[in-house]
Amino acid sequence: MIRLIACDLDETLLDNAKNVSQENIEAITAFEKQGGIFVPCTGRLYTGLKRTLTQLDVWEKAGHYVISTNGAMVTENTGKILVSNGLDWDKTKQLIAYGREKGIGIEVFTGSGTLYYEKVDAKEEKDLPLFIDQLEVLPQQVDFLQTQLIPKLLYERQDMAYLQQFVKEMPQDLKADLEISFSSDRFIEINKKGVHKGSGLIKLAQYFHIPMEETMAVGDSYNDIAMLKTAGVSVAVANAPQEIKQICDHVCKHTNQESAVAEAIAFAMSIR
């Protein structure tokens, strides 16, 4: 029996217009009415989920939770922080300096909810305000970040071959103690070593005293791999790359554009 579902957002729960379909909403509601716990699990900041959580009718509601910034933070929707685990300051500063040296887009996520960015492409600059209220250009002097929690940093460019080569060429001492993954065909996502969506799922399952075999993860991308491997049951949506599908217990017939999460939830509710 599946009691806890952790579900990725972009290209999984959300359609290409960044909305939750009515079919997905109805399936989530049915699962929760049977006592299930549905938890968005995202690379985004928890403070930037108002649009999605409002569509799910759980914005600022107690008893509902989010795993955010790839597992670096677990929060109740009231804003209560259950888990926080950020990058070391020296490493953050080095990553910013390296990104600037290479001329790649940079986004720095803070635990307070502000996202600082520079040199992202036009599509990303257009998308960011959809999800982040506290959005600022990254100042040249970054020492003010030293006192803040930095759950995640990412590099951005719409060229996956370039991003993969970029990571290969990063100095080994810079990559040390980092958790690095890719998502949405345009992001290098960087967290502290051991921090990923899977670790966030473990923390939340422990909070609810739910065995891991009674959890399910639904995803589509490379930053979902740890979560998919950690959960008791793993599900990929139809638009996921073949490498993701191969590691999952179930592959949906539908894409994120076709309410694949509703299909995944039906599969979860069939498990006894």
Can you walk through the features of this model?
The protein has 272 residues and is α/β, with parallel strands linked by helices. Helices cover 35% and strands 22% of the residues. It is built from 11 helices and 14 strands. The strands form 3 sheets. The chain has a 6-stranded mixed sheet, with helices on both faces. The chain has a 5-stranded parallel sheet with strand order 2-1-12-13-14. Strand 12, helix 9 and strand 13 form a beta-alpha-beta unit. Helix 2 runs parallel beside helix 11. The longest helix has 14 residues. It is globular. The N and C termini lie close together (4 Å). The mean pLDDT is 95.
Q: What are its keywords?
A:
22% strand; six-stranded mixed β-sheet; 11 helices; 272 residues; alpha/beta; five-stranded parallel β-sheet
User: What is the strand arrangement across the widest sheet?
Assistant: 8-7-6-9-11-10
Mean pLDDT: 95
Q: What percentage of amino acids are in beta strands?
A: 15-25%
| Net shape | globular
Characterize the largest beta sheet: strand count, sense, and whether it forms a barrel: 6 strands, mixed
Radius of gyration: 18 Å
Helix content: 25-40%
N- to C-terminal distance: 4 Å
Number of helices: 11
How do the helices and strands line up, and which of them pair or pack?
Elements: E1 4-7, H1 9-13, H2 22-33, E2 37-40, H3 50-55, E3 65-68, E4 73-76, E5 81-84, H4 89-102, E6 105-109, E7 115-118, H5 122-131, E8 135-137, E9 152-156, H6 160-169, H7 172-175, E10 178-183, E11 187-192, H8 197-208, E12 215-219, H9 225-230, E13 233-236, H10 242-246, E14 250-251, H11 260-270
Helix pairs in contact: 2-11
